[in-house]
């Protein structure tokens, strides 16, 4: 990937999933094309569903990070598809618990890279590099990543709200395997993934992503479980976002399927 100015490749007329997600969260880093596509997704679902799902996803990431640092003893994080810097980024949560934690963010969106570089100025524990999840070997071979992370020690690989942008013919399970293969036992994988299990309308809603920089592919609980086979799932397993170790930030979850995404934290044996 280019190491120069990522904004030279910026195309504001093409919707970006990262900027659409920022719009769902109430952020400010989006453009008319992003807002138009995001509103189509919002309109296709029951009122409040999409923004609730975005908030639940962000809250889950915080809970998972705190679990990994506090209970699993993880001190290294590889956050792929990190998205725009929003509330409570991984490096702030992790270093608050364990100041020696190190984080490498990865994204392929030029706006994310530009904002990430600005956000991380003066932050010694975290860097951001530009790569695509579809090229896991290039990610792991990145010189900056190798300087920051010791791949002989356990690493938490975060694939939060990104695997649904990978088509079946792009082999999402193979991508996971290639990311985890060189990492030692005790490494972890964190995922969230969209599904139409609770709302069949989701299959129609994600059509708004067809003109975006990448498309969405909903998967069932069974299909997502298959991506995690061979790994040891932390309790409570693969569940709806608000069902994964809820805390005071989770809010009411009497209808957890409204979160639209399944979530899991899994350990490499």
Brief characterization of the structure:
By secondary structure, the chain is of the alpha/beta class.
Given helix and strand content, the structural type is alpha/beta
CATH architecture label: 3-Layer(aba) Sandwich
Order of helices and strands: HHHEHEHEHHEHEHHEEE
Outline? globular
Describe the protein in words.
By secondary structure, the chain is α/β, with parallel strands linked by helices. The protein has one domain: Rossmann fold (3-Layer(aba) Sandwich). The protein is 35% helix and 14% strand. It has ten helices and eight strands. The chain has helices at 17-24, 32-43, 49-70, 90-97, 110-119, 136-141, 143-148, 172-180, 201-205, 221-227, and strands spanning 76-80, 102-107, 126-130, 156-160, 188-194, 232-233, 239-240, 261-267. Strands 1, 2, 3, 4, 5, 6, 7 and 8 form an eight-stranded mixed β-sheet that branches. The longest helix is centred in the N-terminal third of the chain and has 22 residues, at 49-70. The radius of gyration is 17 Å and the shape is globular. The protein starts with 16 loop residues before the first helix and ends with a strand. The mean pLDDT is 90.
């Amino acid at each position: 990937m280019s190491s120069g100015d990522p904004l030279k490749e910026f195309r504001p007329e093409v919707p970006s999933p990262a900027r659409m997600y920022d719009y769902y969260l109430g952020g400010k880093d989006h453009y008319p094309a992003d807002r138009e596509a995001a509103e189509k997704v919002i309109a296709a679902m029951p009122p409040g569903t999409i923004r609730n799902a975005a908030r639940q996803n962000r809250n889950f990431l915080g809970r998972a990070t705190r679990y990994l640092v506090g209970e699993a003893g993880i001190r290294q994080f590889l956050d792929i598809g990190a998205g725009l810097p929003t509330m409570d980024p991984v490096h702030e949560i992790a270093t608050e618990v364990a100041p020696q934690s190190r984080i490498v963010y990865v994204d392929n969106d030029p706006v994310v890279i530009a904002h990430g570089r600005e956000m991380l100025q003066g932050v010694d524990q975290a860097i951001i590099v530009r790569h695509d999840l579809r090229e896991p070997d290039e990610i792991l071979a990145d010189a900056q990543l190798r300087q920051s992370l010791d791949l002989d020690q356990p690493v938490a690989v975060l694939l939060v709200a990104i695997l649904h942008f990978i088509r079946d013919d792009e082999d999402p399970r193979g991508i996971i395997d290639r990311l985890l293969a060189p990492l030692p036992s005790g490494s972890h994988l964190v995922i969230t993934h969209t599904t139409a299990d609770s709302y069949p309308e989701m299959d129609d809603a994600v059509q708004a992503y067809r003109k975006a920089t990448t498309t969405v592919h909903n998967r069932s609980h069974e299909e997502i479980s298959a991506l995690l086979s061979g790994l040891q799932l932390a309790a409570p397993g693969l569940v709806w976002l608000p069902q994964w170790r809820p805390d005071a930030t989770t809010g009411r979850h009497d209808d957890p399927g409204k979160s639209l995404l399944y979530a899991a934290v899994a350990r490499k044996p």
